[in-house]
Amino acid sequence: MNPRRSQFALIALLLGASAPVGHAVAGDMTDRFSVTTNVGLFSQYIFRGISYTQENPAVQGGVDIAHDSGLYLGIWGTNVSDAALNNAAGEIDVYGGYAGQVGDFGYDVGFLQFLFPGGEINGTSESYNTLELYAGLSWGPIGLKYSHTVSDYFGFNNDTFGQGRGGSSGSNYIEANFNHEFLPGWSVSAHVGRQHVEEYSEYSFNDWKVGVVRQFGSGWEAGVAWVDTSADSDLYTVCDDNSHCKDTGKGKWLVHVKRSF
């Protein structure tokens, strides 16, 4: 989500690269940058345990630029359901930060901007666009991460709910992740998270996921996972224009095939 290539070329130039990343220039500036891309087909788009494609398939892809100092920038996109995110043409995430290592511990701090082009919450002019700041810590196969919303949380505020509670800035998500390669090319993962929605606690929930991924070489991988949440079914059931309703937080399988370049 090709305009992305030109956007990242511009970013590289702003960071000091005067030729395509990976080609030598005076001072070997570009040797300090790496670019990776990925594209995948998923059985549905799931974010923090909630399905945003009404259980329909999703095509997802992104581009990342990393500098050997630890700085990085990226952009990622997916299709979404109009029923789940009214009028949104898709989701585009722009993120950046700094990652490093101290002894056996890794750390990562940055920002994540969620954008939903055309998205407008029913009956209002409010958008779903959301900005989060995050900090993560890892040790071996274990990772912890905290994300903090500095805007309203996906449009939760007085204009959209009319309940006089105010905005939802200060919402947060805390998660623990585990990933372990148990055989060459085979890895198992587990995840548990807690989404807190400030001032609208009835929309808060826990989510969890367990899965297996197989790496095939040349950047190819395939995986399967079981995902579930404690989200209130009454609040997270979404119906389309044909009155076909889906409980977006219920337990579900996620299958994917992806390639990285």
SSE topology sketch:
Layout: H1 3-14, E1 33-42, E2 46-47, E3 50-51, E4 58-67, E5 71-78, E6 91-102, E7 105-115, E8 130-139, E9 142-149, H2 158-161, E10 172-183, E11 186-196, E12 205-217, E13 220-229, H3 233-236, E14 237-239, E15 245-247, E16 252-260
Antiparallel strand pairs: 1-4, 1-16, 2-3, 4-5, 5-6, 6-7, 7-8, 8-9, 9-10, 10-11, 11-12, 12-13, 13-16, 14-15
String of helices and strands: HEEEEEEEEEHEEEEHEEE
CATH fold group: Porin
* Main sheet strand line-up: 1-4-5-6-7-8-9-10-11-12-13-16
CATH class: Mainly Beta
Rg, nearest Å: 19 Å
Largest sheet: 12 strands, antiparallel, barrel
Relative strand content: over 45%
Count of DSSP strands: 16
What structural category characterises the helix and strand content? mainly beta
Overall form: globular
Could you walk me through the main structural features you see in this protein, from its secondary elements to its overall organization?
- There is one protein chain.
- This protein has one domain (3-260): monomeric porin ompg (Porin).
- Strand 11 (186-196) and strand 12 (205-217) form a beta hairpin.
- It is mostly beta strands.
- It is built from 3 helices and 16 strands.
- It has helices at 3-14, 158-161, 233-236; strands at residues 33-42, 46-47, 50-51, 58-67, 71-78, 91-102, 105-115, 130-139, 142-149, 172-183, 186-196, 205-217, 220-229, 237-239, 245-247, 252-260.
- Helix content is 8%, strand content 51%.
- Mean pLDDT is 89; it is low at 1-27.
- Keywords: Signal.
- Residues 1-24 form the signal peptide.
